[in-house]
Amino acid sequence: DGEFILIFTNQQCSIDNGILKFPKIMDLEVKTRLDDVDLREVRIIPLGIGYDVEIVYSKEISDVSELSPKRILGIDIGVRNIVTIGNNISEKGIAVKGGVLKSINQYFNKELSR
User: Fold this and answer.
1) Whether the predicted model's global pTM rises above the 0.70 cut
2) DSSP H helical ranges for the chain
3) 3-state DSSP assignment of residue 96
């Protein structure tokens, strides 16, 4: 269809005050929720009816060992249960069953193998 992924480097684009600024020839600005990040690249991916804009950036995060382990949340991704969540503050845990999704996947795989 003649469309391809367009990649801009951090020298061609910038993020200032939450606004992604493209090169002047495009005359385009996109509002983001990002601020104070080290921009690496911006990818524009054609989807047929629109475009996805992927922003690749680097951001400094704090060391987890400095945090207080008073509140802990565990997340388990699985098959029988898609996700199971538990914590240590006596809140009720959450389990999302995966039976329906698992059967849809099995049916799809069965049809694919024919």
Assistant:
1) no
2) 99-113
3) strand
Question: CA nearest 38: which of 66, 5, 15?
Answer: 15
Please count the other Cβ atoms lying within 10 Å of the Cβ belonging to residue 39: 19
| Percent over 90 (pLDDT), the chain | 26
pLDDT digits (tens, 9 = 90+) for 33-70: 988 789 999 999 998 888 999 999 998 777 777 776 77
Averaged confidence pLDDT in the chain: 86
Q: Do the Cβ atoms of 99 and 80 come closer than 8 Å?
A: yes
**Phi and psi at residue 33, in whole multiples of 5°?**
-100, 10
The identity of residue 15, as a single letter, is I
What distance in Å separates the CA atoms of residue 65 and residue 26, rounded to the nearest whole number? 44
Strands 81-87, 29-31: pairing is unpaired
In angstroms, the Cα distances linking 7 to 4, 30, 39, 54, 57 are 10, 16, 13, 9, 13
